[in-house]
Amino acid sequence: MLVFFKNLAKERLVIWNLAKNDCTARFASSGLGVIWSFLTPLMTILVFWFVFQVGFKNAPIQNVPFMVWYIPAFLSWNYFSETLIQVTSSLREYKYLVTKVNFEVSIIPLIKVISYAFIHFAFIFFIIFINLLYGQKITLYYFQSLYYFFCMIMLLSSLGWLLSSVAAFIPDVVNVIGIVIQIGFWATPIFWEPSTMNPIVQSILKLNPMFYICQGYRESFIYQVAFWERPFQTTYFWIFVLVILILGVKSFTKLRPQFDDVL
Fold first, then answer.
1. Residues 131-148: what's their mean pLDDT?
2. Which of 44, 45, 119, 263 has a CA 20 to 30 Å removed from the CA of 79?
3. Which of 102, 103, 84 has the alpha carbon at shortest distance from 248?
């Protein structure tokens, strides 16, 4: 484990530069370029605003306007779901780097995590803008969103090493993850308020690590609840990440010698 992360630290500049290149290369052939990364989720938000707030005139949720309540959870889920698909297939996308001599292959999943993180970081300011538009006050709790941002990066990195190493041998893993993401969308409090659920159902849904993060974004931008006020959920989340991290690093390290043959 120590050697694995020591090698990552040595390649930090390479990771940074490749992540920037990946971010711009995704839309290099389009006229608007990287702006498309913002337009797609913004159009989704606009549709839901029109349907639920203009059309159905949804009542405020716990005295919070629907869009203010909805956007933080949706954007955090959007970053997670898009990046998870990309990190899972990252070794196949960058297989020309896998076969290079002396290239630290373990940085490839991180390239995707950081590449998509650039966009999500910009969306944090968009959340603040929407809050101000609806008359919400800026508080110190807004800075707590950076903690949950870091939580997501750690979760995605851990899953990235685990899933990408398996997907190198079993390509269908990417399709399975796509299905899991569709199910996970409805198992995460994006459209529903957890307090309205049966306590037993809540306990089951809280096993989903994105439950912690989506609620955390809301608690940072809306409810002003510190993460240490959720000791059990915080402890569970980090134990979950640690287990996935260990599994991911061990799987990646063990399977690395065979990547050249299967990709």
1. 92
2. 263
3. 84
Q: For tokens 């800075």, name the residue.
A: 143
Q: Which 3 state secondary structure label does DSSP give 136?
A: coil
Q: What is the pLDDT of residues 146-160, one digit of tens each?
A: 999 999 999 999 999
What is the pLDDT of the chain when averaged over all its residues?
Answer: 88
Contacts of residues 1-10 at CB distance under 8 Å and 24 or more positions apart, as own/partner, are 1/246, 1/249, 4/106, 4/249, 4/252, 4/253, 7/104, 7/106, 8/104, 8/106, 8/107, 8/110, 10/104
Can you tell me the distance from the alpha carbon of 231 to that of 88, in angstroms, rounded to the nearest whole number? 31
- Phi, psi (rounded to 5 degrees) for 137: -90, 145
pLDDT in tens, 225-250: 999 999 999 999 999 999 999 999 99
Amino acid in the structure at residue 240? F
Please name which of 21, 5, 250 lies closest in space to residue 104, comparing C-alpha atoms: 5
The structure's pTM equals 0.91
103: its two tokens = 């290239």
